[in-house]
């Protein structure tokens, strides 16, 4: 005999494609798979175990008169606070999504205001830089000089330094362990800082990419292209936790706007269009 749905199940299914208990266990599985430091083998084991539980759960519903709560208790070991737990999670998650949405909207408004100030001339629009020795603007270089730089290991990069104008070609002197985009923004930050301080340190093997001091306080910049975010998130967390202990303020310049909200939890995130203003604010 097929059991009848409970009233709260019927109410849920009026507005949702899946029964509430199915959606809840999907979320639980997602939480498990999203935990840091898990190998591919462990993740496969988690999925396989969940599939076995789901098969057993469906078998009980189809072959017995037990309702889903009784089936869950047998398979998953859940208690009678199932709906309350899910509703609490959903309410909390919706508040989190709303906070993220508001933050994104505020960031968009800030960027629009910055663009308006640039257009009105209230903020000096930086010109593309030609940093002798590390970074060269191609249009200023004769062909022979470009060939010389190529022979010395310089790399050619097309990029818009501040995101406020069209892209131009640059020749970048990269260190052994970095991409040309990473090197470009390290040199750009260094040049901007040297408008205010004499000593700026660029690290290669360890520590933040750029370090400087002002009024006996230490600050740092790290350039993030997004590679470490997917390749080694645990290292990323340890690194920025360490920086927060050592520096008054830790800035993270993300090379793509899409990365902004992925790094907010680690430090003060700036983009190519906002980092100059962030630096200026330190020295006000």
Explain the overall architecture:
With 284 residues, the chain is an alpha/beta fold. It folds into two domains: 7-80, no CATH class; 124-282, 3-Layer(aba) Sandwich (Rossmann fold), CATH 3.40.50. The protein is 51% helix and 13% strand. It has helices at residues 7-13, 20-33, 40-63, 68-75, 82-120, 143-151, 180-193, 227-231, 233-246, 260-263, 275-282; strands spanning 135-137, 155-159, 168-172, 201-202, 210-214, 217-224, 249-254, 268-270. A five-stranded mixed sheet has the order 4-5-6-7-8, sandwiched between helices. It has a three-stranded antiparallel sheet with strand order 1-3-2, sandwiched between helices. A hairpin with a 2-residue loop joins strand 5 (210-214) and strand 6 (217-224). Helix 3 (40-63) crosses helix 4 (68-75). The protein is elongated. Mean pLDDT is 80; it is low at 123-130.
Give a quick summary of the entry.
Strands 4-5-6-7-8 form a 5-stranded mixed β-sheet, with helices on both faces. It has a 3-stranded antiparallel β-sheet with strand order 1-3-2, sandwiched between helices.
Topology:
Layout: H1 7-13, H2 20-33, H3 40-63, H4 68-75, H5 82-120, E1 135-137, H6 143-151, E2 155-159, E3 168-172, H7 180-193, E4 201-202, E5 210-214, E6 217-224, H8 227-231, H9 233-246, E7 249-254, H10 260-263, E8 268-270, H11 275-282
Parallel strand pairs: 6-7, 7-8
Antiparallel strand pairs: 1-3, 2-3, 4-5, 5-6
Helix pairs in contact: 3-4
Q: Any descriptors?
A:
Rossmann fold; 8 strands; 284 residues; elongated; alpha/beta; 2 domains; 5-stranded mixed beta sheet; single chain; 3-stranded antiparallel beta sheet; 51% helix
